[in-house]
């Protein structure tokens, strides 16, 4: 801020004069400010595209589209779903074939019932138990704390909220004379081997006060012991502590016993595979649409970034509309975007050479380019044709997307070209997305990069330094103007004083 000492001649307004003069001096700085804003908008526009590039790459990873198992997903159909349901793995790990299952016994939970709670007296105490479940390798220590204000309801709540692994509920039973309060515990895990053992005599006494029976080892005695599920798969007898389990990539859920074997038909999960391919194509089309929008958008040079002074005379809505127009077309015909989009487009349409030297093409499975000009190269899926291809030959579909290797020998050009021909579409696209992202980042950086680390950042850094230097110069110019006009003002004031003195002499 310039120190301003204005005169008192009242001949002219020094602040107003200097302000008008500085507006002229400010013009080069305003131009640089607009340039800076334009560069920042351009940078942000590049980064928007890079975000879409990352979204597509992330989707490929999240859907496991680089894994052969993804294209081998299976579904299982049960002939008696009220007794047995089965699902295949969506990651292709199902290696079982169609067969049957005969369920002779379901897995059940252990139940512990008290004979009545009349012997329970609320008291402050800490009780410790050792809990063993069918799947545990060693007991787990669980502690329960009580107070002398506890009720049976609060005890039941504590049991449910503890790590005992049981569901507790309070009810009433008839003891031959009266209905008395009782507590029942049901283990949350099924199968054999559920055990709750009091760690000391005090803890055992807590259980007996609640009406539970403990044996000589202080273990809670089960009213009903849990049992394992028993079944035959393709005639082979098996058992499991759970009614839901996975075997050979098939997840079974046993719901009831069966009089005869239940048929299980294993087949390709066409819908799951199709949906993943469709998600990939849809996300790719989003990227195509965004790039087309950027490179085809017209530049309106009549709308330049607004200065702070210009914004003062506009409403927020007017500023928003102005800047929306000013931002348009900043990447029109951009070579980085055009090149990146062209490379990925060719990844889809170049023939793929399989391991048996056959050539396959994406159109063979029903994926083609839209014939609508406005779509600008988007892909279109023939759902019927793609689903038929998946059902008829999932291996061919897998080759279409992930044959060959993801990595290419960049040092040997001829070898790299041959490897590219053998690559499936997903492998090609992933590599192209990586290269595309790097080229954008070289130009526009990322939020974690410093200005000096990317092209537009260097331009912004250089421009920022020029602006800073120019702002320092403006301060000197403004100070010089004030010095000059203050001197003029003082001179005029002095002349006015002399004129008044002469007039006074002449008037005598």
UniProtKB/TrEMBL annotation:
Q: What does this protein do?
A: Required for morphogenesis and for the elongation of the flagellar filament by facilitating polymerization of the flagellin monomers at the tip of growing filament. Forms a capping structure, which prevents flagellin subunits (transported through the central channel of the flagellum) from leaking out without polymerization at the distal end.
Q: Name the segments for region: Disordered.
A: 70-97
- What Gene Ontology biological process does one annotation of this record name? cell adhesion
Record-linked PANTHER family: FLAGELLAR CAP/ASSEMBLY PROTEIN FLID, FLAGELLAR HOOK-ASSOCIATED PROTEIN 2
Q: Can you say where in the cell this protein is located?
A: Secreted; Bacterial flagellum
Residue span(s) of domain Flagellar hook-associated protein 2 N-terminal: 12-109
Q: Which domain of life is it from?
A: Bacteria
The parts of the chain that form a coiled coil are 29-66
Does the keyword Transmembrane feature in the UniProt annotation? no
Protein name (record): Flagellar hook-associated protein 2
Domain (Flagellar hook-associated protein 2 C-terminal): residue spans on this chain? 226-497
What would be one Pfam family of this protein? FliD_N
Q: Which family does the record claim for this protein?
A: Belongs to the FliD family.
* Polar residues biased stretches: 76-97
Kindly report the protein's main subcellular placement as a broad class: secreted
Q: What is the lineage of its organism?
A: Bacteria, Bacillati, Bacillota, Bacilli, Bacillales
How does the record describe its quaternary structure? Answer: Homopentamer.
Q: Which UniProt keywords apply?
A: Bacterial flagellum, Cell projection, Cilium, Coiled coil, Flagellum, Secreted
Species source reads Bacillus zhangzhouensis
- GO-annotated cellular components: bacterial-type flagellum filament cap; bacterial-type flagellum hook; extracellular region
Q: Which InterPro entries match?
A: Flagellin_hook_IN_motif, FliD, FliD_C, FliD_N
NCBIfam families reported in the protein's UniProt record: PRK07737.1
């Amino acid at each position: 801020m310039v120190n301003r000492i204005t005169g008192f001649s009242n001949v002219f307004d020094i602040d107003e004069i200097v302000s008008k003069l500085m507006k002229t001096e400010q013009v080069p700085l305003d131009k640089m400010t607009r340039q800076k804003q334009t560069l920042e908008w351009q940078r942000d526009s590049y980064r928007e595209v890079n975000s879409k590039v990352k979204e597509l790459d992330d989707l490929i990873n999240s859907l496991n589209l680089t894994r052969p198992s993804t294209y081998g997903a299976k579904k299982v159909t049960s002939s008696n779903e009220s007794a047995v349901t089965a699902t295949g793995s969506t990651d292709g790990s199902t290696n079982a074939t169609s067969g049957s299952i005969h369920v002779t016994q379901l897995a059940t939970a252990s139940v512990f019932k008290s004979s009545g709670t009349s012997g329970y007296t609320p008291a402050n105490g800490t009780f410790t138990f050792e809990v063993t479940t069918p799947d545990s390798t060693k007991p787990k220590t669980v502690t329960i704390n009580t107070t002398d204000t506890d009720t049976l309801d609060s005890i039941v709540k504590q049991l449910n909220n503890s790590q005992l692994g049981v569901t507790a509920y309070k009810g009433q039973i008839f003891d031959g004379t009266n209905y008395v309060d009782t507590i029942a515990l049901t283990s949350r895990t099924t199968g054999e081997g559920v055990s709750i053992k009091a760690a000391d005599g005090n803890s055992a006494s807590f259980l007996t006060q609640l009406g539970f029976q403990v044996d000589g080892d202080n273990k809670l005695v089960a009213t009903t012991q849990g049992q394992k599920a028993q079944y035959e798969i393709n005639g082979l007898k098996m058992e499991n502590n759970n009614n839901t389990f996975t075997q050979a990539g098939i997840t079974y859920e046993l719901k009831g016993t069966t009089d005869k074997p239940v048929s299980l038909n294993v087949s390709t999960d066409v819908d799951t595979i199709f949906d993943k391919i469709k998600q990939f194509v849809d996300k790719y089309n989003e990227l195509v649409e965004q790039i087309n929008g950027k490179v085809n958008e017209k530049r309106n040079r009549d709308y330049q970034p607004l200065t702070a002074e210009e914004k003062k005379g506009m409403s927020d809505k007017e500023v928003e509309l102005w800047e929306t127009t000013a931002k348009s077309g900043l990447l029109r015909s951009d070579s980085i975007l055009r090149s990146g989009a062209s490379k990925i487009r060719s990844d889809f349409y170049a023939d793929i050479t399989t391991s048996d030297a056959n050539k396959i093409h994406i159109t063979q499975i029903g994926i083609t380019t839209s014939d609508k000009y406005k779509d600008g190269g988007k892909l279109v899926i023939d759902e019927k044709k793609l689903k038929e291809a998946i059902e008829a030959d999932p291996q061919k579909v897998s080759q279409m997307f992930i044959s060959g290797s993801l990595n290419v020998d960049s040092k040997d050009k001829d070898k790299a070209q041959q490897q590219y021909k053998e690559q499936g579409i997903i492998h090609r696209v992933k590599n192209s997305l990586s290269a595309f992202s790097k080229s954008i980042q070289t130009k526009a950086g990322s939020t974690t990069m410093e200005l000096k680390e990317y092209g537009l950042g260097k331009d912004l850094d250089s421009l920022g330094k020029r602006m800073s230097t120019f702002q320092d110069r403006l301060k000197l110019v403004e100070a010089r103007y004030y010095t000059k006009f203050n001197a003029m003002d003082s001179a005029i004031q002095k002349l006015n004083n002399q004129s008044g003195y002469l007039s006074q002499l002449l008037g005598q």
